[in-house]
Specification:
There is one protein chain. The chain has about 475 residues and is an alpha+beta fold. The chain has 6 helices and 30 strands. The chain has a domain of about 220 residues. The longest helix is centred in the last third of the chain and has 20 residues.
Length: about 475
């Protein structure tokens, strides 16, 4: 089926009561299938970043998914602006996958469908046709041709069955076409990716229904016309598999993260999913994974483990730093990380030495208000009224004056300092580099332990003030290299 570009995409609007009920029931089915608890609402979550997307041809443009909306910079981190969740089309506890396409289109896979912005985040609309009201579980832009992207949708059919389909675009999300055959109804998809060196090779990760709830890869060598199942050892409904990356030159080499409790693991297959080897086991959540653009180096990270590096040829890991990165994105320009403001000294950081040290690109109080758009835009009419509450939550200080950025002049290494009072009291420019270099061999000391305790206490306090709602997102933490 085809959602034509000639159809009028539906703009972001309020959700009707019957539609909200249908969405809530479907969300509850997915949550129940995954065995997930219902956490606090989005406004009660501790402010944190969880994903960084980079424009494919403009390294100065970054987009960060945070627990309080999307954060955008057009100048390499000098100034950051806020895009509120409602204008994009998500809320609750959704952590949508977002990506840039070749012409700058931003796409977001949300519970209500595929949301896209053609003007930098000022206005958003949903893809029409069969993608309307379909839960977009994951999406991935093509690395070789970013005008192309694939996404996977899933909806509950009842009795542990799901309608799971692959869709793709080749025109910067102007239109979407259903690709190939539906997946088996007892398969619940989690992530999707296409091999950069072979566009016909596609992978889906997920898990099958009872009795053992086996985690598996679904592989296609004909762009989704047929699928072949490969079970992933050690995965089940308590340890779900997420695709980390596919080697840019070898379609048979794929990295998969197993998300479990209390620890995670990284697996690799070098034969297209026929066999797997466990190459890293974490102490806690393994939230960050990045593959260098040339595929030669692998990085993993988590709040309890710090950042670890290995050559892809040997996969023998060495600890690089104690930065507990919650996401990693590796581009030709730099390595980017999501950090804990209290523990790591930054919300978004940049490294030029493969994770040994970071300079802070964004502090939480350096967000300079809503994205600047025309008065008639969706963002101007929606986000402006919501900024006050967000500003109080994250402690932001409005930016003013020229050069009110957050990253200029920051050097690598050293210790973190709070935002300066330059540029008319903006608080958006860094006075010193972010704390980002920790001894690779030394365990965290007393200061780090205290910071962790303060961070946890803050999260608990916010969570207690929030109301509980069913989780609207069945995805795991950040999963893919940028």
């Amino acid at each position: 089926m085809h959602s034509s570009a000639e159809e009028t995409p539906r703009p972001r609007r309020g959700t009707s009561a019957p539609r909200r009920r249908r969405l809530a029931l479907s969300a509850a089915a997915l949550v129940a299938a995954l065995g997930l608890a219902a956490p606090a609402s989005a406004n009660g979550r501790f402010p944190a970043a969880g994903l960084i997307a980079s424009h494919p041809s403009d390294p100065s443009r970054l987009l960060v998914r945070a627990t309080y909306g999307l954060l955008s910079t057009r100048d390499g981190g000098e100034e950051w602006r806020w895009i509120c969740e409602p204008v994009v089309g998500f809320g609750g506890n959704e952590d949508p996958m977002v990506a840039f396409l070749a012409d700058g289109t931003i796409i977001a896979g949300v519970f209500e469908g595929l949301s896209a912005s053609k003007n930098g985040g000022c206005d958003w609309s949903f893809a029409p046709g069969e993608l309307s009201d379909s839960y977009v579980i994951d999406l991935s832009a093509d690395r070789e041709d970013p005008s192309r992207a694939v996404l996977v949708i899933s909806s509950g059919l009842g009795a542990g069955r799901f309608l799971t389909q692959l869709w793709e675009t080749s025109d910067n999300a102007d239109s979407w076409t259903k690709s190939g055959a539906d997946l088996p109804e007892d398969f619940l998809a989690q992530t999707v990716d296409a091999a950069p060196s072979n566009r016909d090779r596609l992978y889906l990760s997920g898990r099958f229904g009872g009795p053992d709830y086996a985690g598996a890869l679904q592989r296609s060598d004909d762009r989704g016309a047929t699928w072949e199942r490969f079970d992933i050892p050690g995965s089940d409904d308590k340890r779900l598999p997420y695709i980390g990356a596919i080697d840019p030159a070898d379609p048979d080499t794929i990295y998969v993260r197993l998300d479990g409790d209390p620890s995670d693991a990284l697996l690799v297959s070098r034969d297209g999913g026929q066999s797997f080897a466990t190459v890293f086991e974490s102490q806690g959540d393994l939230l960050g994974f990045a593959l260098s653009p040339d595929g030669a180096t692998v990085l993993v990270s988590g709040p309890q483990d710090g950042i670890w590096r290995a050559a892809a040829s040997s996969l023998e890991f060495t600890r690089m730093s104690g930065v507990g990165a919650r996401c990693l994105t590796w581009t030709e320009a730099a390595l980017f990380a999501c950090g804990d403001e209290v523990v790591d000294g930054f919300t978004v950081g940049r490294s030029l030495d493969e994770g040994k040290s970071f300079e802070a690109l964004l502090h939480r109080d350096g967000l300079c208000g809503p994205i600047e758009c025309a008065p008639e835009s969706g963002a101007a009419s929606t986000c402006t009224d919501l900024w006050g509450a967000t500003e109080l939550t994250i402690g932001s200080r409005q930016c003013g004056g020229a050069g009110s950025g957050s990253g200029a002049g920051a050097g690598s290494g050293g210790s973190s300092a709070g935002p300066s009072e330059e540029a008319g009291g903006c608080g958006c420019r860094l006075g010193a580099p972010g704390a980002a270099s920790a001894d690779a061999a030394a365990p965290p000391g007393g200061r780090r332990a205290l910071a962790l305790a303060l961070s946890a206490a803050g999260a608990l306090a916010l969570a207690r003030r929030s109301r509980t709602r069913a989780r609207a997102s069945a995805r795991g933490p950040a999963r893919r290299a940028g």
